Predict the structure.
Amino acid sequence: MNLVVGATGDLGGAVCKRLREEGKPVRGLVRSTADAGKVDRLRQQGVDLAYGDLKDRRSLDAACAGVDTVICTATTTVSRQPDDSIEDTDRDGCLSLVAAAKEAGVGRFVYLSYSGGIDRGSEPCRLTQAKRSVEAALQKSGMSYTIVRPSYFMEVWLSPIVGFDYGNAQVAIYGSGESPISWISREDVAKFVVQSLDNPIARNAILELGGPEPLSPLSVVSIFEESSGRSFAVTHVPVEALREQVRTADDSLQEAFAALMLSHEDGDVIDMAKTLQAFSVPLSSVRDYAESVSVRA
């Protein structure tokens, strides 16, 4: 049995779907407050539902019972609920999940983290600190592990959520916008996660994942302009303004997004040559993504 924690999230949902398409048994941990449509979609796919919460250790113990592999894609950054915080969910909740899985005799744990390039940023934040603490606990747990560290998701960082408003042809660029980033598709990450379960290369390994080519944010804007046939209005958010946001953020989530935006200035280039020799994942490009959203816009 494969337990997916974060099953109602976009990445967790994609992982569940792919596992079921391969005929693999899946149990999805869902909250009682989860979106009913997403829960129903999991049920229709044949996912066994376990109700619980990362902040409720007893529910984690129950969810891990009889499980061979835990896949944790959970994070509070995108689908935040009122009682969520990075400290409670991304740090303490995931640490509790690692402990519950170990006690239940789970043999394998796949954990979604963040690219190592983010550590180079000048403003480390509580989110990356939480991710690294969970990684360390997992590596010491005695379970076989795979730590997946994707670079910036196209579907998040090239979307209106963070100021890349392709529908209105308006883009906020963080810093100079000249440093290359290995933007990656969320669906491609889901493919790597599922393939890692049967790939010996992924055992007790850290997989740094990026897209097919590193592109600066300004180059990305040019691709969107070509795909849509429109000129984009670009504004630059100064690095100092982002540093001030990190220092004055009201909570850890605001701090995290400001710090991740600041990391754009440092870039995040990931060489995928060796990884692609071991995995069969045709990588989606920024142009593929731009063309798909230009049609919908």
